[in-house]
Amino acid sequence: MAYSYSEVEGKRAHDPLAVGIAVKSAKCIWVAGPIIVGAGPSGLAAAACLKQRGVPSVILERSNCIASLWKNRTYDRLRLHLPKQFCELPLMPFPKNFPTYPTKQQFVAYLDTYVSRFDLKPVFGTTVVSAEFDPICRFWRVKTSSGTKCLDFEYTSRWLIVATGENAEAFLPKLEGMDDFRGPVLHTSEYKSGDMFCGKRVLVVGCGNSGMEVCLDLCNHNAQPSLVVRDSVHILPQEMLGRSTFGLSMCFLKWFPAHIVDRLLLLVSHFMIGDTAKYGLIRPKLGPLQLKNKTGKTPVLDVGTLSHIKSGKIKVFRGIKRVRHDSVEFVDEKEEKFDAIILATGYRSNVPSWLMDTDMFSKEDGFPKEQFPHTWKGKDGLYAIGFNKRGLLGASMDAWRIAEDIELMWKAETKRFTDLTRAVA
Ligand SMILES: Cc1cc2nc3c(=O)[nH]c(=O)nc-3n(C[C@H](O)[C@H](O)[C@H](O)COP(=O)(O)OP(=O)(O)OC[C@H]3O[C@@H](n4cnc5c(N)ncnc54)[C@H](O)[C@@H]3O)c2cc1C
Question: Is residue 256 pLDDT above 70, yes or no?
């Protein structure tokens, strides 16, 4: 049985063969436009750009809301790390009254407005469990699970856009003895605020932007945080020479190569924050921009944590040897007592767990094998958005390219279909 399907995307009730709508049979839904997996900022940006070009799409989202990372898995004091002009999605700027670094609540409100503006209706509570290209029919078969068997479908389409994000799953390292620790051990994705840690000794493992900011939040809530810094790290002031460090870097990169801009950034940083190695924060050999280009590792933009490290309010440790019942032993044989451990150890992509048989993504890390700017397009109508390690700005770039590319094929197919219908008539 095949009948018109209006719940997914198209409001139009049409003939099953019509272009631009999804068609549902007992367990199978044919989507005429692309299927987008993930309703985070990337998936929404792709859908909006496609819609603006007249291409409908279906967004499948495992959680029950848009932007679930921002709504459910981030801490309360979070603000955008980069100035707003580098974080807005295509076709809709941030409101003028937003501050340079919008709060998480403002960013979420912006995304909610974005969804209303472009009338996007993701299918919530729908986890993509497998997606495979059918070489005979030449379309993608996307299987979903919703927790209720009767609501599990197979969606099919010519195009598949992967928008599940670089941060799909929390990365939890295996630390020796961690199961014996008597206090709470949580990932930053579960951390909301330092409220519950007042007066407690808390070990924060990992020195990225999240780890540093959680330490600051703990200080502000009168906890006693310590920080584990295992690898080298670039700490830069969030602003320098009266401008955002990111904006300044972008501006200089128009004129100078990355290694020259790096030297400038490090020189100004040295004047402003001094030699961070004195506090256990050793800089990598490669400059911050070159390192970002080569490995994707983002420099930490300091929002006030460093002054607490300098004053000794936050202790720095080099690496964990093992965890005990109420203490942690470090690689330099020091041992300290702690009441809680927070893992600021980052995230990983989940693409290899559901995308079958493709050359596009690495099975090891779940990222596209190609480097920026070639991460967005694979073979057989497969696309990736938000995997170029360039945050929201990178996702916007991908959205434009993907929409432009699919629009050409969409128009050609629509014309072929119209010609065919005319010929038959
Ligand atoms: C704490 C934090 C702060 C950040 N701050 C900034 C910043 O200031 N500026 C910046 O540019 N970037 C920032 N980032 C980077 C961040 O990754 C992007 O801002 C943005 O959230 C990426 O959007 P996305 O849509 O690609 O991924 P996500 O926001 O992770 O969205 C992916 C969506 O896919 C869904 N999904 C995953 N797997 C499946 C599946 N199998 N089936 C169906 N749905 C699925 C998820 O539920 C999720 O809703 C920050 C990241 C973090 C963690």
Answer: yes
Q: pTM value?
A: 0.92
- Tens of pLDDT, residue by residue over 212-253, are 999 999 999 999 999 999 999 999 999 998 999 999 999 999
CA of 104 to the centre of ligand 1 (A): 13
The terminus-to-terminus CA distance of the chain in angstroms comes to 24
Q: Is 349 in the pocket of ligand 1 (CB under 6 A)?
A: no
Atom of ligand 1 nearest to the CA of 391: 11
Q: How far is the CA of 199 from the centre of ligand 1 (A)?
A: 32
Is the CB–ligand 1 distance for residue 391 below 6 Å? Answer: yes
- Give the tokens for residue 320: 């964990």
Mean pLDDT of the chain: 93
Which pLDDT score is estimated for 12?
34
Domain 171-346: CATH superfamily, name plus number: FAD/NAD(P)-binding domain (3.50.50.60)
Q: Other CB atoms closer than 10 Å to residue 319's CB: what's the count?
A: 12
CATH for 2-168+349-424? 3.50.50.60
Q: Which atom of ligand 1 is nearest to the CA of 42?
A: 25
Tell me which residue has tokens 């090891």. Answer: 364
